[in-house]
Design brief:
mainly alpha, two-stranded antiparallel ribbon
Length: 188
């Protein structure tokens, strides 16, 4: 996916389910994206450009089902238009630089930044921690004795380092493996 699309999509994904995420994306594409036709003649709407999406007010974005995320997307559009959010610069950064850069923008926290780094920038050392991964880490990797004094804000970083630090540079690959295993093998 396009990096701009990836950032907006992961902003929409915050505290959201897949069905609602898809609906929100379809709505903003229909309202602000360019209408196109596939080679098979099927009509669809492209993901809106920064310029097109920045035409929407925060209220109009809320009307697309974005809820509180509308303010993040609205502000990010303005940041991109004025050049504060520079996708070329972001694409050239290493993982640590990209995390720091992304989290400097309103509404982008550690989870969204790690998702963008892993799936949009292909930094395979990124390890996004969403509710599914939190559950897996707590069920299979948490040791009460070892981690009881670690503040929650640092807990998952510590578990990830202790459990997957032996695979330097490949944490994101491990994240995908444990997620897939949990969903497809244990979840049966």
């Amino acid at each position: 996916q396009d990096l701009w699309e990836m950032i907006v999509t992961f902003l929409i994904s915050q505290q959201n389910n897949i069905k609602r995420i898809r609906k929100c994306i379809e709505t903003i594409c229909r309202k602000y994206g360019e209408r196109k036709n596939s080679s098979a003649g099927v009509e669809y709407y492209a993901f809106p450009t920064v310029e097109a999406l920045s035409q929407a007010t925060e209220e109009e974005l809320r009307g697309c089902g974005l809820g509180y995320r509308a303010k993040y997307i609205h502000r990010l559009c303005q940041d991109a238009l004025e050049g504060s959010l520079n996708l070329d610069l972001l694409s050239s950064q290493n993982y640590k630089e990209a995390i720091d850069y992304l989290t400097s923008f309103y509404g982008i926290g550690k989870k969204v930044a790690n998702c963008v780094c892993l799936f949009g920038l292909h930094h395979i050392d990124a390890f996004p921690v969403d509710t599914w991964i939190q559950k897996i880490l707590m069920e299979h990797y948490f040791d009460e004795k070892k981690y009881r004094r670690i503040p929650k804000s640092q807990l998952f970083d510590r578990i990830i380092e202790d459990s997957f630090g032996c695979y330097p540079g490949y944490a994101g690959v491990m994240q995908q493996y444990i997620f897939n295993y949990e969903r497809n093998e244990i979840g049966k």
